[in-house]
Design goal:
heterodimer, A: mainly alpha, two-stranded antiparallel ribbon, 2 strands, flat, B: mainly alpha, 4 helices, elongated
Chain lengths: 127, 173
């Protein structure tokens, strides 16, 4: 497969899986390291009443998980697809639409999750 | 570093040194200035990308330049934002936004989540563009163009919400 085709497939995969795994941290409440700015320390537990930051852990998890999946896809392509093969235009379009839709839906979910949690919908009369 | 402790309870009675809090205002200003570069390059890039949809491909070099500038300005903005987050978390969120304006924290949290996903998108956006000839690989614009729109939405949301929150409470001193 051409280098630009490989880049395209891997790009679509990385965008899709980063958005998906980031949302997974919200859906499944995955335990990740949190930074406690008052204590200057990292802990795996979420201590109630103590200010902490889970955002760093969430993004590292999403980037690592998406990176691993994208790397696996790369290895599969490298072994299973010959260098002369090129992506069909229809497949290119489907991949583009699928990656865009996944990212958009995940971004929409993030907005819904936080607006619901912090009462933004109530404030603008949508509750 | 715990630097002065009067009682073992409550933020109001304990004086802590939060990571980089002394440089908060300076870093926040840097964050803002690089954001201007980011916003300009992204918006100008989007205008050229829209012209691709109309079949006009005469400004590809300039658009690639905007993409490069956007990526690196986003990385700088992102790193500075991550560095000042601990001080913001304590002095803005914990002491003001969470108890008094929780909806503002809602706006902020979306900004952070979109920002994190946006970082991955920005690298993809750049590497995709580097390996793409818009006039020849028109099918690949099916991912490139929506990414450009999504990134503009992320950047504009971050800028508007960031400025609004700073208007609500810009510093703690």
């Amino acid at each position: 497969m051409k280098k630009s085709d490989v880049t395209y497939v891997l790009s679509a995969a990385f965008v899709t899986f980063t958005s998906f795994f980031y949302c997974c941290t919200m859906w499944f409440a995955i335990k990740l390291p949190r930074y406690y700015p008052l204590e200057h320390t990292w802990k795996w537990v979420n201590e109630k009443g103590v200010p902490s930051q889970g955002w760093y852990g969430m993004q590292v998890f999403a980037f690592l998980a998406a990176g691993i999946v994208t790397f696996i896809i790369y290895l599969v392509f490298k072994r299973a697809v010959s260098a002369e093969t090129s992506l069909k235009p229809a497949h290119i379009r489907i991949l583009g639409v699928a990656a865009t839709l996944t990212a958009t839906i995940c971004m929409g979910y993030m907005l819904y999750h936080e607006f619901e949690k912090w009462g933004v919908f109530g404030l603008i009369g949508l509750e | 570093m715990l630097f002065l402790e009067t009682e073992p309870v409550g933020l109001s009675t304990i004086c802590f040194m939060i990571f980089l809090e002394k440089f908060y205002s300076l870093l926040l200003l840097g964050h803002l200035f690089v954001t201007f570069v980011l916003l300009g390059s992204m918006t100008h890039g989007l205008l050229i990308v829209i012209s691709y949809l109309r079949g006009k491909f005469n400004r590809q070099k300039l658009e690639l330049f905007y993409t490069k500038v956007s990526l690196w300005s986003y990385v700088i903005v992102y790193v500075i934002g991550a560095l000042i987050y601990p001080a913001y978390r304590i002095y803005m969120r914990q002491q003001y936004f969470d108890p008094q304006l929780p909806w503002a924290t809602g706006l902020f949290e979306v900004k952070e989540h979109w920002g994190a996903v946006g970082l991955a998108m920005f690298f993809v956006f750049y590497f995709l563009r580097k390996n793409l000839q818009p006039a020849e690989d028109k099918d690949k614009l099916w991912l490139y163009v929506p990414l450009c729109f999504l990134l503009n939405i992320i950047v504009w949301y971050k800028v508007v919400v960031g400025c609004y929150l700073t208007l609500l409470k810009g510093s703690w001193s």
